[in-house]
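Q: Protein A?
A:
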Amino acid sequence: MAVLTKKRYRFGGTLTANDGDGLPVEYHAGDPVPDEWLRRRSPGEVSALRGNGLLREIGAPLAPQRAPEPPRRPTVEEILRNTGWSAAAVEDGQVVNGPRGYTITVLERAARDADLKRVAGAHPPFEIPVVVHRVGDELVATLPLARLAARLGMVPAR
């Protein structure tokens, strides 16, 4: 009994090719690859078809799957645009064309006491200072609790 060393393949997708008479033939995923079709292909072509998954060796282990990319966190602009301020943009660390009545400062670093004191300090009426900074991987907005309570309707604004 002879030992078979010839590799056998199946198609990994839909492929249209010409047969020995030059007529187009369509092969589908899972169909075995005919020997005469394989003989008409060069080793480079077979290698390329294996590389892009159109030919799969029977009995060979599957190629490892690529790890999915972790989800990307939305930027400050994307968050504001998704909530209705379509013209919002961050320019020089300030949000422009954002919600009216708010002065939003975006920090590219962790917030320091001086940044947070700016939020709690004196400011013009009808202008609420907000500092956006990162805590871990999350964007966090800091604003005075009295203003937040007023916005949520818990206490009257002062």
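Q: Protein B?
A:
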Amino acid sequence: MATLKDIKGTNVQSVDGDPSNPIEGQIWYNTSSRVLKGVTAAPSSGSWSTGGNLNTARYQLGGAGTQTAALGFGGSPPVVGRTNTEEYDGSSWTNGGALNTARWGIEGNGTQTAALGAGGQYNPAGGVRSETEEYDGSTWTAGGALSTARKEGATAGTQTASFYATGQLLAGPTPTATEEYDGSSWTAGGTMGTGRYGPGGTGTQTAGLAFGGARNSPYANLDPTEEYDGTTWTAGGNLGTARYGMAPAVNGTQTAALSAGGAGGTSATEGYDGTSWSTLANLGTATYRFGGAGTQAAGLGFGGGPAASVKNTTQEFTGPNVKTTVTIDVD
């Protein structure tokens, strides 16, 4: 009779417990529980659940970090913008250090203890900001200013290697320029194919993603996705739902991105695989212009609008296709 070793060319590993990070398809024998186990990642659309509320309801705020160690900062109301920073531990928000410059429409990336916030605006008729600030887990300090002041762009990466692309000026055409940050100063990067404000951004400085957004004159929600290699932007697969102001998983990747909400208050969620976007489970509460953090497998959205109904809610995403350890029936 053929054995598993004859068929697969390997023995089933015996482990006192379970492996710390098994991969999909891996099988092992748990000597403690005396059962055969394996890992599966069945196709799914994921699911959203409710997390702890922000202490201060707001929208148009920046986000950074992961689902269990996130950061939310800035935002509106009031129209002059906020300096508030809050830190999330996976269940509740606590107040952190205040931004030096109050603003909304600020974009963020990085981690809870090494975050970056750039751009924004301080009131509807006031100036668009160029200031960049860096967070160390307790205090914001000034970094190098953007070459072009703007708000609501697409940003991703880390505190010492990030990009900021497109966005909105106080007046005039939407820029297509990209700037890259090295931890101290911004320099010119590649030019985007489609200028827009309010797009999502995720990935790294050399493998980034920007998607969706909106334009004025004439106004329209947009669906294009563009991929960045650190030098050049190229077209990717379009979003299924054209929109702006969505919460991206800021620490997602170019081949595993998450886009949720947006466009005046939709609950639509989509996942990107490096080629195309697919429909995932809807948000529990439709919202837009809200903070985002995490990854495609463990995403986070918090706060949001519209302005007439600013929210303090937090929503957590699990999936899709999260690995699950199962016991294998050998009877």
